[in-house]
Design brief:
The complex is a heterodimer of chains A (470) and B (210).
Chain A lengths: L6 H7 L2 E4 L4 E5 L2 E4 L1 H13 L10 E4 L19 H15 L2 E3 L9 H7 L8 E4 L13 E4 L2 H10 L1 E5 L2 E8 L8 H12 L7 E6 L1 H5 L2 H10 L7 E3 L4 H7 L9 H11 L11 E6 L6 E3 L7 E3 L13 H14 L14 E4 L7 H11 L9 E4 L4 H9 L2 H8 L2 E2 L20 E4 L14 E4 L2 H10 L11
Helix pairs in contact in A: 2-3, 2-5, 6-8, 12-14, 12-15
Chain B lengths: L5 E4 L1 E4 L6 H4 L19 H4 L22 E4 L11 H9 L3 E4 L4 H8 L4 E4 L2 H13 L4 E4 L4 E3 L5 E3 L4 H9 L3 H6 L2 H14 L14
Parallel strand pairs in B: 2-3, 3-4, 4-5
Antiparallel strand pairs in B: 1-6, 6-7, 7-8
Classes of the chains: A alpha/beta (470), B alpha/beta (210).
Chain lengths: 470, 210
């Protein structure tokens, strides 16, 4: 048996209730966050089986996915069928009496943003939510992952899940981040290197000297996109940055309890002699702003570069997928991305909607105007982020430039038949998925950092943000 | 949930990698608070041209695949969003078994919870199966008791699945009922854990916020 353990192995070990053989364990789930889509279904299933919530203290809820985000919105959804989910969910949280950050609550926001803000997620906790980007809260050292609504029912009823223990991977980001680049560029480079299936079945620990100096918001962007390489978990073990961030937040321990928790959390760092099943190193010294050209986050490239000549893998299936992506996006091998006209720009989502992201975009937008013909929208990640941004006057910068300044929610990250960019339009987005039809029928999404989205909105075409950040 | 022991059925081949759940069940297809009726929405953007008119070029629309109950596909099937409706759509369409090079972890769990058998084969086994299916449309026999797939031509492919997942599928067990058999261990764990990590166990909320 190994004596030197990685952080993920330490945290996993602390949560095993029973070993079920073949690497499958019954785990205790410390935190469960629900939103109105998957959560409504979990409550519905619970009620149908006449079951109660086992531990209401560990269960949290908010509204983010299909709720409208236009200014002055209430509890409504423009997505067909959305109102039904909202009603069923609010009914469920009220009857089962769990902590609920509703639309009128000052703490409402995107689940993964407020989970860290409120310190609902804590280092060394197992944290689940019915959304694949739950990995985001790995930013504060939790093992966090997405689940379906049926597993959500199981967590509500038993506070447990059966899970296959993943293998371990360490991704080291080394070097120094050049000016004008950010966490989004780091993680797009990573995914383009190892592929959309590059971390399937792995618990990914993010490390390296660049990670050490990143704030929690930047760590969140990287942990968020761990889901796009199919990682089971993506997290940064607790360090001083984590402790400084969490101290004093609403659901964090305080007083003597804080001191002993902090000591325990520090002990969860990977042992020096621990070995990982896989190691990946990404050099950041020559990092450029990245942008996607295709229909997977793995189709990412430096903005100054051109669409690749061939697929990452060279088998017939990969080639066919590659040509399908080129065709959907209407781009060709060898084509420059800079200068490709866009008609939509979106800054928001659990990937990039925190205060640091808005500050970065504002640096580009200040004193400049969004190009004619570009619909530009910003949704701050939470009510707290929105208030903080407004206190700094960032909203005025966005609005003066021609961006819509909206209410918190998932919004245009995903159009489920509701609000979307114009069918077939080409847009640039600070979100996490450029899948076919995700942001509207036939919509062609280019993923990028908030700074790159802002610069592209100003130019009216995909643009390198660095000249605008001087 | 339907128990799964053996299945004798045609296999449909959809050989693409990284098929994400947005393609399996597009967002606009899943906006209903039921767990059934998603069959018509499966692969909707690929399957239909418009107004639900079938796209003749889409692999699954080939006449020889019309009664298929086994789906054969590539790497990382079910990646992306955790939407469980993806598993419901695959099941409602008529598939009971998916054979892939690999699955997204979330989608794999959703399969187990819905009586769908997710089989991973290594590249050699997968390639030989796909080759065998190219010209032979006769049904395959999938045996979960023996963990093997047999073709009418006499070829056999073995697979592995964790014992607990086999048990859940073969008995059609509800995950909650299964966890309930560990009730005393769960309580013992939590009692000990409260002492080790008291900061995990927050107070039950006394009042609501609307």
């Amino acid at each position: 048996m190994k004596t030197a353990l990685t952080s993920a192995e330490k945290i996993w070990r602390e949560h095993v209730i029973a070993s079920l053989g073949d690497g499958v364990d019954l785990l205790h789930i410390d935190r469960h966050f629900l939103h109105e889509l998957s959560g409504a279904m979990s409550f519905k299933g619970l009620d149908a089986a006449n079951r109660r919530v086992f531990d209401r203290g560990l269960t949290f809820a908010t509204i983010d996915h299909v709720v409208d985000t236009y200014t002055g919105r209430g509890l409504t959804s423009s997505t067909p069928g959305g109102d039904g989910f909202l009603r069923a969910f609010v009914d469920g949280v009220q009857r089962h009496k769990v902590t609920f950050f509703g639309i009128e609550d000052a703490r409402q926001g995107i689940t993964h943003v407020i989970a860290a803000e409120q310190a609902i997620a804590l280092p060394g906790t197992t944290f689940v939510c019915g959304d694949s980007h739950t990995t985001t809260v790995g930013s504060v050292g939790a093992l966090a992952w997405g689940i379906g609504s049926t597993d959500g029912e199981q967590v509500l009823a038993t506070q447990t899940l059966t899970m296959s223990k993943p293998r371990t991977m360490r991704v080291r980001f080394d070097g120094v981040l050049p000016p004008g680049t950010s966490a989004k560029d780091m993680v797009l480079k990573l995914i383009s290197t190892i592929g959309a299936d590059g971390a399937t079945g792995y618990a990914v620990e993010f490390a390296g000297n660049v990670m050490r100096v990143l704030p929690i918001s930047a760590r969140a962007t990287i942990c968020n996109m761990a889901s796009e390489m199919s990682a089971r978990f993506g997290f940064v073990p607790c360090d001083d940055t984590t402790l400084d961030y969490l101290y004093g937040r609403p659901f964090a321990p305080s007083g003597a309890a804080w001191e002993s928790a902090a000591r325990y959390w520090r002990s969860l760092a990977s042992d020096d002699e621990a070995t990982f099943d896989a190691e990946v190193a990404i050099d950041c010294d020559d990092l450029e702003p990245f942008v996607t050209w295709g229909t997977s986050p793995e189709h990412a490239m430096p903005i100054s570069s051109v669409v690749p000549e061939e697929s990452r893998r060279l088998d017939a299936v990969a080639r066919a997928d590659f040509f399908r992506a080129l065709s959907y996006m209407d781009v060709t091998p060898g084509q420059r991305m800079v200068g490709l006209p866009i008609s939509g720009a979106f800054i928001g989502s659990c990937t990039n909607s925190r205060l640091d992201d808005l500050r970065e975009a504002a640096r580009v937008l200040r004193g400049r105007r969004v190009a004619d013909g570009v619909q530009a929208i910003c949704t701050p990640g939470s009510s707290a982020v929105k208030r903080d941004a407004e206190a700094e006057g960032l909203d005025a910068v966005f609005k003066a430039s021609g961006f819509e300044w909206r209410e918190p929610g998932c919004s245009l990250c995903m159009s489920a038949g509701g609000e979307s960019f114009l069918p077939g339009s080409r847009i640039v987005s600070s979100t996490n998925r450029n899948f076919e039809d995700r942001q509207g029928p036939g919509v062609r999404s280019h993923l990028a950092s908030p700074a790159t989205v802002a610069a592209s909105a100003i130019v009216g075409a995909l643009a390198d943000p660095r000249p605008y950040l001087q | 949930m339907q128990p799964f022991e053996t299945l004798r059925a045609t296999a449909a081949v959809l050989l693409r990698d990284n098929i994400d759940t947005d393609q399996i069940i597009p967002g606009k297809e899943l906006m209903k608070t039921t767990k059934t009726g998603f069959g018509a929405g499966l692969f909707a953007e690929w399957r239909y041209l418009h107004d639900r008119v079938e796209n003749p070029v889409f692999e699954l629309n080939q006449p020889r695949y019309k009664r298929a109950q086994i789906l054969v596909t590539g790497r990382n099937f079910g990646c992306g969003s955790s939407r469980e409706a993806a598993a419901w759509a695959v099941r409602d369409y008529g598939f009971s078994c998916i054979i892939a090079l690999s699955f997204s972890g979330i989608f794999y769990s959703n399969c187990i919870k819905n009586g769908l058998l997710p089989i991973s084969l290594d590249i050699e086994a997968h390639s030989s199966l796909v080759l065998a299916l190219e010209d032979d449309t006769r049904p395959l026999e999938v045996d979960l008791r023996e963990c093997r797939i047999d073709s009418a031509a006499g070829s056999r492919w073995s697979f592995t699945l964790p014992a607990v997942h086999r048990e859940l599928l073969m008995l059609g067990l509800d995950g909650i009922d299964y966890a309930a058999t560990y009730q005393s261990q769960i309580e013992a764990f939590r009692a000990a854990d409260r002492l080790r990590r008291p900061w995990v166990y927050l107070e039950q909320p006394g009042s609501l916020s609307a």
